[in-house]
């Protein structure tokens, strides 16, 4: 379903929880993502913050594609609690960020 791996999302979550010291790394990591991964990331965050329901993933993805005007890193960093929303989004879709995070530590 997602166009981005759980491991990549977990890495972004880890950077997000340490944004004060890891903003540069977060920006650099997001720059390595392709467009589809970025759109999927935004759609996932929206699901996690309850802007879309889990069964509306396709709609969230289409909205992310249609409304993209801000670079993904800027948009995420400008969204309060984005790392928590990403984690919640994964959980709502039945995926575990915790397992992927452990493999990165």
SSE layout:
Elements: H1 6-17, H2 19-31, H3 35-48, H4 57-67, H5 72-77, H6 82-92, H7 97-104
Structure description:
It is built from 7 helices and no strands. With 105 residues, it is mostly helical. The mean pLDDT is 92. The longest helix has 14 residues, at 35-48. It has helices at residues 6-17, 19-31, 35-48, 57-67, 72-77, 82-92, 97-104. Helix 1 (6-17) packs across helix 7 (97-104) and helix 3 (35-48) packs across helix 6 (82-92). The chain is globular and about 35 Å long.
In brief:
The termini are far apart. This protein is 71% helix and 0% strand. It has 105 residues and is mostly helical.
Features:
single chain, 105 residues, mainly alpha, 71% helix
Average pLDDT for all residues: 92
Distance between the termini: 26 Å
Oligomerization category of the chains in this entry = single chain
Put simply, the count of helices is 7
- State the share of residues found in helices, binned by percent: over 70%
Number of strands: 0
User: Structural class of the helices, strands and pairings?
Assistant: mainly alpha
Shape summary: globular
Major sheet: none
**Strand percentage:** under 5%
Q: Give the SSE string.
A: HHHHHHH
Instruction: Give the low-confidence spans.
Output: none
C-alpha-based Rg, rounded? 12 Å
